Each structure stands twice: as structure tokens, then as C-alpha cells.
TrEMBL record:
<keyword id="KW-0378">Hydrolase</keyword>
<dbReference type="InterPro" id="IPR001940">
    <property type="entry name" value="Peptidase_S1C"/>
</dbReference>
<dbReference type="InterPro" id="IPR036034">
    <property type="entry name" value="PDZ_sf"/>
</dbReference>
<dbReference type="GO" id="GO:0004252">
    <property type="term" value="F:serine-type endopeptidase activity"/>
</dbReference>
<feature type="domain" description="PDZ">
    <location>
        <begin position="344"/>
        <end position="435"/>
    </location>
</feature>
<feature type="region of interest" description="Disordered">
    <location>
        <begin position="1"/>
        <end position="26"/>
    </location>
</feature>
<dbReference type="InterPro" id="IPR043504">
    <property type="entry name" value="Peptidase_S1_PA_chymotrypsin"/>
</dbReference>
<dbReference type="InterPro" id="IPR009003">
    <property type="entry name" value="Peptidase_S1_PA"/>
</dbReference>
<dbReference type="InterPro" id="IPR041517">
    <property type="entry name" value="DEGP_PDZ"/>
</dbReference>
<feature type="domain" description="Protease Do-like PDZ">
    <location>
        <begin position="442"/>
        <end position="587"/>
    </location>
</feature>
<dbReference type="GO" id="GO:0006508">
    <property type="term" value="P:proteolysis"/>
</dbReference>
<keyword id="KW-0645">Protease</keyword>
<feature type="region of interest" description="Disordered">
    <location>
        <begin position="51"/>
        <end position="98"/>
    </location>
</feature>
<keyword id="KW-0720">Serine protease</keyword>
<dbReference type="Pfam" id="PF17815">
    <property type="entry name" value="PDZ_3"/>
</dbReference>
<dbReference type="Pfam" id="PF13180">
    <property type="entry name" value="PDZ_2"/>
</dbReference>
<comment type="similarity">
    <text>Belongs to the peptidase S1C family.</text>
</comment>
Length: 590
């Protein structure tokens, strides 16, 4: 007897989903990117070997259509009506439509075409400019700064722009040893040279010296900043295959975003197209085939799906023009102030503001800012370059939209001036403020500079950076690191451009340092009564010390006292025991 089948509605087929993965593919640190989420977007492959088969199958199906069958149950809705209401990334038909010779192989004319298919068709000519980036990374060992970690490889995406240049993400080539590029449909990898790395904006610029690489490829053209609900198509080389892939979606949000790799906040686009590991550095095209952004990070959260982020064209053009203007990347400037919202009416009255005045109150001013002497705490910023600032710190952006006024600052270049109007003691004042890059007491990145260290009597001194905290306490360092270090990381300001936070990283055990073995990541405040400004000044003071004892004043009222001659003599034996070539890093020797 055959299988008994219940009557009623046919069960739906399970949705086609990709397994969610935590995949580190390119960043030297676990926290450079948000964890990538595998979304439910269909990925359309452009592999040449599958095009002919799919095209032949479509032709046979058109010439020999299957006999019509009448199904049981309620009549189906029309396909056209169904596709009108379908999300841009949802599959409107069970058959995939591969790309062939710059066009889309369509079904018979009676089959309607979904919106995202027309977008993808326009993108096809520009897809040849999308390249795969292969990088070998050698990351410094911040916990053992005299050596490096084991090298590892990664792959990501990039695209060709004018001037024989290629753009990709900065985290794709971070701590690079070798970078190679491969064009679509090619079996050759070309050695690339890194021209500039923009850490804050997470963009890197590459070039290839081999002229063969540039043959037969047209550079990508940039488009304007898209509007909400505009269709976007992300092209790249994500996990799940070796060939190029395309995912489609719409722009769902435009605002100031937190750039995870750059540890800064800049303008960004949120889209619902899938951005997975390997998509980083790939272009996002609009429906005209112009690039409107660079895929760079996505959000993984149990309550969120299909949230990807794209670096928009204003940020990209700022990076490119900065490089062309200065011959190097100089960064995005800041105003150098911390401010407070003025939404409370009593607070506005106390600050002497009139009913028609709006602005934000300055809380603190960066001591390293070039014009820190002009502005004062409790000044109320009324406008920036003629644009009025609201009580919540926003300015008009586009029709019906507002954005944080830091966007206006980020449009400037390092060394530019801006006209800032402030309210001080009920008087309106105007200042031409020179803008500069941010000098952090605990830097978010160390660029290509190896970490600094100094060793005396087994005490390893180093300067605290975010990569160091991540190396010591993992990607959750903001929860696991000592409270005093976190407080300085989040709130402390550098008093001078060369100030560093110096700590005893660890103690390499020896007879001379008995009793001090448990000192770990404790800040050094002074040496022999003199304040410690940075690691180099500490090394110079110790090496040139003629006192009988070396005294280090530490955080939590701890002190370390060593006999000077014995400490210097023991250092050589300790270096030999631990196979350390030098007692200090190269940058401290100059």
C-alpha cells in the first residue's frame, strides 16, 4: 500500500538559508569587524562554466514546455501580483538567472522581471572591475613585543578606479606582508603595492605595476549619495565559493555610524543586502551601475537580520582627494571638544540662551587641539560654518532628514579652518578654528609601527594601545581590562602630542625581582620622583640614572625599588634566558 497523504494545503518548502558563521578572514584582531551574519539573500554566481548549461536548459524549457496540470485546492495568485510585494532580496522564481556576456538570460516574455534583476543587469558591465584581494598578514605580538605572531592569509574584495588604482578595506591589508590581486575570469595573481591606508575610514588604496593587469578593464564610476529605499547591489567574493557573487537590497538608513575598525564615527549607509566575510572592500552599485559605497561590516545580533553597512561616496571621495592633495593619507579632522545636549529648557536659561537660540554646550576641550585656547568649557556652539546646530547636536542633512553636526567637521581636511559661532556669557562670539586629527592618550591603532618596549631587571615596560588591550584581554577587553585602564581609555585626554600611558606589562621572573612577580599591567606614574611622560623618556631616565637605587612609583600607591647596578647587570642574563635580542625596541634607540 502506498504512502498515505493527508488532504489539505501543501506544506511550504523550508526557506533557503545559509548557516550563520563567526569567520575571521582578514582582520589582524578579533574586534576589527563585527561578526559577520549570513543572511537569507540569494547569491547569484557568475561562473562561466555554469552559464552555457543554464542557457541551454532555459532554451529547451521554452521550446518544450511541460504539460499544464490543474492543481487541487484554491487557485493560485498571479505571479505578477506576487512579485510586486516581494522584498528586493527575495527570490521571485525558483529558477536562477545567470549572467552571460554582459546580459541577463531571461525566461520567456510572459514571465515578469523582478526589480532587483533589472538592477543587476545594469551592474554587469562594471563587474569586470571587481577584483579579489589576497593578503598575507604578519601581526605584531603586543604581549611579547619583541616578536611577531605566526603569519596568516586572507581574501577579500576590491575594485578598480581611475588612475590605475584599486580600492579595498583597510582591515583587508592590515599588517600586510604581501598583497596580490586577481581579476574576474583570470587565473593570474598580480603583486600589488599599498599606496595608502585610511584607518579611520577603513579604506586602502592599492596599485599594480604590471601593465597587463589594467588591460581590458574600465574603472568604476562613482555615483551620488543614494536616498532611502534606493536599490543597491553588492558585488564581491564572499565565503561560500570562489567566483564572484552578487547580492541585492535597498538602502534602509543613512546616518553617522560607528566604524569598528577605525574606532571612529563617520557617515555610513545601512542596507539589507547580505554582507558576509570576504565581501569587505567590494563595491555597492546603484541601479545606474555607479558605485555608491564600499561594503565593510555587518551586524550580528539575535534580534537583527540582514543588516549590512557600506562606506558612502562622500567618505570615499574624502579619502581619495586627501591622498591626491597631500600625497599621503592625513585623516579626518575633529573639532577637539566634547559637548552636551541642551534639550532641557532650564539648562538653556541658565546658560543665558534666548528662546530662539539653539546649540550644544562644550563640556571639555582637547588640550592637544590647535586652537584649544580659543574655546572654553560652557561655551554654547550655535553654528558651524554658518549651519545652525540644534539642541540635540544635529544639523539639516537632506529633505526631511537630520544628522549629527560631526558630519560637517568630517567633510573638512586636516589643517582646514572653520567658522564657529559660540555663546559665552550671553554674548555671541565667532572664531576661526583650525581643525586637526585626534590625538588619543590610548591610540586605537599603531599603523605599521611595531609596538615599543623597554626591559630592565625583567620588568617589561610598554605603552598601552587598544591592540595591546585586545591582545591581553581578548575582544571583550572593554569588560575584562582593569577599571583604571578602561577609564583612561574612555575618558582621559592627552596633555601633549607625545604623551603615553606607560605600564609594567609583566615581570620576567629572576632573582633580582623576587616579590614583584604579580605586578601586571600597572601604570607607571614616576621614576625617582620625576613624572613619566612616555616610554622613551622613562628609558632615557633609567639608562642615565646615577643614583644607587631605581624607584618606580606605580598606580595604587605601589612602589618598586631595585639596586641600580645589580638591575642593569641582571638584565643581560634575563634577555639571554628569554632569547630577546635587545632590551628596547628600535624606535627608542634613536
Amino acid at each position: 500500500m502506498g504512502e498515505t497523504r493527508k488532504r489539505g494545503r501543501k506544506p511550504k518548502a523550508p526557506a533557503s538559508t545559509t548557516e550563520t558563521m563567526d569567520f575571521q578572514y582578514t582582520s589582524a584582531s578579533n574586534a576589527t569587524q563585527t561578526d559577520y551574519v549570513a543572511a537569507q539573500n540569494d547569491v547569484f554566481s557568475a561562473a562561466n562554466d555554469s552559464v552555457a548549461t543554464a542557457a541551454a536548459a532555459a532554451k529547451n524549457d521554452a521550446n518544450n514546455p511541460p504539460p499544464a496540470r490543474r492543481g487541487r485546492g484554491r487557485p493560485r495568485k498571479s505571479e505578477a501580483g506576487h512579485m510586486e510585494d516581494t522584498e528586493p532580496h527575495a527570490a521571485a522564481s525558483p529558477e536562477r538567472r545567470p549572467y552571460q556576456n554582459g546580459a541577463v538570460v531571461l525566461e520567456p516574455p510572459t514571465q515578469p522581471v523582478a526589480k532587483w534583476e533589472s538592477v543587476a543587469a545594469r551592474v554587469v558591465p562594471a563587474m569586470d572591475a571587481v577584483v579579489k584581494v589576497f593578503c598575507v598578514h604578519t601581526e605584531p605580538n603586543y604581549s611579547l613585543p619583541w616578536q611577531r605572531k605566526r603569519q596568516y592569509s586572507s581574501s577579500s574584495s576590491g575594485f578598480i578606479i581611475g588612475g590605475k588604482r584599486v580600492l579595498t578595506n583597510a582591515h583587508s591589508v592590515e599588517h600586510y606582508t604581501q598583497v596580490k590581486l586577481k581579476k574576474r575570469g583570470s587565473d593570474t595573481k598580480y603583486l600589488a603595492t599599498v599606496l595608502a591606508i585610511g584607518t579611520e575610514c577603513d579604506i586602502a588604496m592599492l596599485t599594480v605595476s604590471d601593465d597587463e593587469f589594467w588591460e581590458g578593464v574600465s574603472p568604476v564610476e562613482f555615483g551620488d549619495l543614494p536616498a532611502l529605499q534606493d536599490a543597491v547591489t553588492v558585488v564581491g567574493y564572499p565565503i561560500g565559493g570562489d567566483t564572484i557573487s552578487v547580492t541585492s537590497g535597498v538602502v534602509s538608513r543613512i546616518e553617522i555610524l560607528s566604524y569598528v575598525h577605525g574606532s571612529t564615527e563617520l557617515l555610513g549607509l545601512q542596507i539589507d543586502a547580505a554582507i558576509n566575510s570576504g565581501n569587505s572592500g567590494g563595491p555597492a552599485f546603484n541601479d545606474k551601475g555607479n558605485c555608491v559605497g564600499i561594503a565593510f561590516q555587518s551586524l550580528k545580533h539575535e534580534d537583527a537580520e540582514n543588516i549590512g553597512y557600506v562606506i558612502p561616496t562622500p567618505v570615499i571621495m574624502h579619502f581619495i582627494q586627501d591622498y591626491e592633495k597631500n600625497g599621503a593619507y592625513t585623516g579626518f579632522p575633529i573639532l577637539g571638544v566634547e559637548w552636551q545636549k541642551m534639550e532641557n529648557p532650564d539648562l538653556r536659561l541658565a546658560m543665558g540662551m534666548k528662546s530662539d537660540q539653539k546649540g550644544v554646550r562644550i563640556r571639555r576641550i582637547e588640550p592637544t587641539a590647535p586652537e584649544s585656547h580659543l574655546l572654553k568649557p560652557s561655551d554654547v556652539i550655535l553654528s558651524f560654518d554658518g549651519v545652525k546646530v540644534a539642541n540635540d547636536g544635529t544639523v539639516p542633512f537632506r529633505h526631511g532628514e537630520r544628522i549629527g553636526f560631526s558630519y560637517l567637521v568630517s567633510q573638512k581636511y586636516t589643517g582646514d579652518t572653520a567658522l564657529v559661532k559660540v555663546l559665552r556669557d550671553s554674548k555671541i562670539l565667532e572664531f576661526d578654528i583650525k581643525l586637526a586629527t585626534h590625538k588619543r592618550l590610548i591610540p586605537a591603532h599603531t599603523s605599521a609601527i611595531p609596538p615599543s618596549y623597554y626591559i630592565i631587571a625583567g620588568f617589561v615596560f610598554t605603552a598601552v594601545t587598544v591592540p595591546y588591550l585586545r591582545s591581553e584581554y581578548g575582544k571583550d577587553y572593554e569588560f575584562d581590562a582593569p577599571v583604571k585602564l578602561l577609564d583612561k581609555h574612555l575618558h582621559a585626554m592627552a596633555e601633549s602630542t607625545d604623551e603615553q600611558l606607560v605600564v609594567i606589562s609583566q615581570v620576567l621572573v629572576a632573582d633580582i625581582n623576587i616579590g614583584y612577580e604579580d605586578i601586571v599591567n600597572t601604570q607607571v606614574l614616576a621614576f625617582n620622583g620625576k613624572p613619566v611622560k612616555n616610554l622613551k623618556s622613562l628609558a632615557n631616565m633609567v639608562d642615565n640614572c646615577n643614583d644607587e637605587y631605581l624607584r618606580f612609583d606605580l598606580e595604587y600607591q605601589q612602589i618598586v625599588v631595585l639596586h641600580a647596578k645589580a638591575a642593569k647587570a641582571a638584565t643581560l642574563d634575563i634577555l639571554t634566558t628569554h632569547c630577546i635580542s635587545s632590551a628596547m625596541s628600535d624606535d627608542l634607540k634613536t
